[in-house]
Amino acid sequence: MSKQDSNKSLMPWITTVLMVTGIAVLAALYWNKNVTVQDVQVNDLYFTEYEQVKLAADIPLGVKPDSLDLNAVVDRVVKLDYVRSVKPYIEPSGDLRLTVAERQPIALLVNGANRIYVDAEGVRLPILEGKTQDVPLLYGYSAVSDDTIKTEEFTQVRDFLMRA
């Protein structure tokens, strides 16, 4: 087989690859120009309501996906009490999907009449009406929602509760 014959056999493949690449680039440009955010979707949550997440995200419908500051959206949603993390994803249809991971209480801090949940990271979480958890009672810590518990004693109690 001569060099000229091998070049002729490669030509259809090269043409096909270039055409597919060109079509993909044109489709991406078209999508980027015409797609707008029409809906915000959130995974199923127990403690945090869909409307709370949607309000915190504060995304105007009809905005182009490349105009969204997704880091700012994540920062706003993470400020909600029970939200641990948020992963945004823009669907090809333009829908914005927020995958939210919630904090899970591991104990109920009790200090006199004050009560508040705490998660494994020591973050104090408010008790929400109708959303109670069956967790152990933990005495000896402040039950005021002011700061995260980061003491060595809490770490030991947390490790014990997580293994139990």
By CATH reckoning, the class of the largest domain would read Alpha Beta
Number of strands: 7
Average pLDDT taken over every residue: 88
Largest sheet: 4 strands, mixed
Report low-confidence residues grouped into runs of 5 or more: none
CATH architecture of the largest domain: Roll
How much is the radius of gyration in Å? 26 Å
List its salient traits:
3 domains, alpha/beta, 3-stranded mixed β-sheet, 4-stranded mixed β-sheet, Ubiquitin-like (UB roll), about 160 residues
Description:
This protein is an alpha/beta fold. It has 3 domains: 1-34; 35-102, membrane protein fhac (Ubiquitin-like (UB roll)); 105-163, no CATH class. The chain is built from 4 helices and 7 strands. The strands form 2 sheets. It has a 4-stranded mixed sheet with strand order 6-5-4-7. Strands 1-3-2 form a 3-stranded mixed sheet, covered by helices on one side. A hairpin with a 4-residue loop joins strand 5 (114-119) and strand 6 (124-125).
Q: SSE layout and pairings?
A:
Elements: H1 3-34, E1 40-42, H2 50-57, H3 70-78, E2 83-90, E3 96-102, E4 105-111, E5 114-119, E6 124-125, E7 137-139, H4 152-163
Helix pairs in contact: 2-3
Offer a concise description of the structure.
The protein is 37% helix and 22% strand. With 164 residues, it is α/β, with parallel strands linked by helices. The model has no long low-confidence stretch (mean pLDDT 88).
